Amino acid sequence: MGFLTHAISVLIAVIAIAFTVFVNYPPPPESPILYQWRTSGKYYEFNGYDIFYKDEFGKGNELINATILCLHGFPTSSFDFYKVWPHLKKTFKRVIAVDFLGLGFSSKPRYHHYSVFEQSDLVENFLKHLGIREVHVWSHDYGDTVAQELIARQNEGKEKITLKSVSMMNGGIFPGIYRPFLVQKLLRFPIIGTILGKLANYYMFSTNIISVFGEETCPTVAELYDMWAIIRYNDGYRISGEILYYMDERHMNEDRWVGALKETKIKIHFIYGALDPINPESFVDFYKKIIPNPIIDVLRNCGHYPHLELPDIVFNLYQKFIRNHILS
């Protein structure tokens, strides 16, 4: 009995040491391109928190006086737009991207009640800070839901900014057909989610993130390490469950946010990667049925991250939308 007790004590000690080493394992170093992205960005204060953003002036052409705002998804950051950023700078006069609170290089407070409504306030406050009143929005995933709330506010005449157009990519804008992964659901549970958050690591992350990409458009190892480095920044991986509250909000506010897309006078565009497991292909028919005069482009060989997987093609689709439906 004494041997068994001793063995169990040793095992517990080994597990405790392994756990301590595991959760304190340093994040990967930034690649040169990620380092350049971060160091060329700026910060502004929102409700006492530091919010990272990129703000650059482009050459402009047909949209010489227009500004575009890029809204990223979960669990990544504005860096997702880096491959289309040069294209945007050639098209728009001003190109802006912001990291939501709790994500990217922005502050990541723990025990914070993260909400789509707060992130929408952040966007409005951010644009006011820059002195911008009108924007074209290009969003992805979580950013799509924030865009829906901004559209709802504009429909109600309560907006602080004017959306000139909105183009979305692979967001769960219809909660009824959205299929989150099991790990996302588990992260929402108080105790289990806390443990899973602390146990999160590059290998778990890379396995899950690769599964939402197309088979032929998977990210490189270097790109995966950059994504993970951003998530590890300020221990962001530990608050994933708190940010995922947006999945609950989508259901609670389904009438408001889906209704916003149905009622708006703003031109809405959707670029859909058909190999996305969390937004199954039934999404296309549902979108066409729900949205009046739908404008949607479907990429058959693309997954959840169109702007990372097929950046040139995706930008051309976006530019076609602007030319055909905004400038015409």
From TrEMBL:
Domain of life where this protein originates: Eukaryota
SUPFAM superfamilies, A to Z: alpha/beta-Hydrolases (SSF53474)
InterPro entries associated with the record: AB_hydrolase_1 (IPR000073), AB_hydrolase_fold (IPR029058), AB_hydrolase_sf (IPR050266), Epox_hydrolase-like (IPR000639)
Phylogenetic classification of the source organism: Eukaryota, Metazoa, Ecdysozoa, Arthropoda, Chelicerata
Record bears the keyword Glycosyltransferase: no
Pfam families: Abhydrolase_1
Subcellular location: Endoplasmic reticulum membrane
Record protein name field: Mesoderm-specific transcript protein-like protein
UniProt key word Membrane: yes
